[in-house]
């Protein structure tokens, strides 16, 4: 399949590109120089001035997971089907057996002082066949919510975390015209069954990253490499969110339940150019706009457009009550050409011995979290750090990671940002998409042979912060 879109209006396209380069790249060339951000020196100074900082009393503290990564035996979805072509150790299998062990794990979360916990519903369990809803699966999720509430933990429920039921795959997945309505119908059943005890809902996890990986570069199911199809999927996901948002609000109002906060989890990556070249800057800037901002902009304004490249119009604007930010790292971008997808560039690796990296080779760059909180504050919506974490075999590195990123959050809060919570990724070691079980993200270690859980020291250090509401040592 042709991976490129041939622009239908080449003259307009190049004119747009010219404007973008001359007017755009010059002033917003990278995230590094946005006016909201501090230089690394300013940041280093500012973060040492947080001795007296105390997190807000009602701040949501906790961690997250997603159904396919922890539940086990989710054999009725697209990821399961995809995994069957991967080596044995890359398949999710029984994962953390969370389906049977959530009570035990929620008790551990409680001992760690959590006030919030994010998890996702597995669509393929709730609706195993089109239009057929499984009452026992719905009841299972209801029990999870009751269990969390009984422990004083706020449930934050994701309605779609990457996986879709096999029956939907057979209908074309997110490419199918009716997918937004099918999603809204599933959401309606799920939300009605959960009762009014859920006050925070995330409709879709990381729509841009999902689309990029699954439809643009073909690394995730269904393994497509088509810009055109990727754009169709983005539109369907955005419409699915809008319809689900409407349904959720309608149900809560009809039942007289307390109005919930509905948002998405947006992955944000700092994109820096590989070199000082204008083209690399252009690609980094375009990636920032397309991957970090476009979806959120569309949901807020009811439309979004990158001239000559992409435009979207939604049934209605203002369908976000909060923005979830999933932040992990910074990537360097090298331009590959002028047409899509090459104009989005590819990643380059800068050899810099000072840079700290996670086990998966991702740069650890806490200042990026501060940058994004400040940047996304322009949307004037509450921000939830819905994911932030590191995979490492060195648990001391995890503590340091958490400390450093919480400093970034604290600094943004001190400067007036509206951050309502922080959810470390992840509560447990779990199945990592396409990587298997080797990456260890958990606050709690999982021995997959026995399913034994062990609380890591980093979790205890995180607990200290949660209980005191204060940052740990500010030596760094
Ligand atoms: C996110 C994703 C999570 C988890 C995490 C760590 O993109 O939402 O499910 O896998 O990355 O890689």
Class derived from helix and strand content: alpha/beta
Rg from C-alpha positions? 21 Å
The quaternary state of the protein chains shown equals single chain
Nearest-integer average pLDDT: 92
Distance between the termini: 50 Å
For the largest beta-sheet, the strand count, sense and barrel status come to: 8 strands, parallel, barrel
The DSSP helix count reads 15
Topology pattern, helix = H, strand = E: HHEHHHEHHEHHEHHEHEEEEHEHEEEH
Descriptive account of the structure:
41% of the residues lie in helices and 17% in strands. It has helices at residues 10-27, 40-46, 67-70, 78-83, 98-111, 123-126, 135-150, 166-170, 179-194, 207-216, 227-255, 278-301, 367-376, 395-414, 457-468; strands spanning 60-64, 116-120, 154-160, 200-205, 261-273, 303-306, 310-313, 322-334, 346-348, 383-387, 419-425, 444-447, 452-455. It has an eight-stranded parallel barrel, surrounded by six helices. A two-stranded antiparallel ribbon has the order 6-7. Strands 12-13 form a two-stranded antiparallel sheet. The longest helix has 29 residues, at 227-255. It is globular and about 55 Å long. 47% of the residues are buried. The site of beta-D-galactopyranose has 11 residues, from loops.
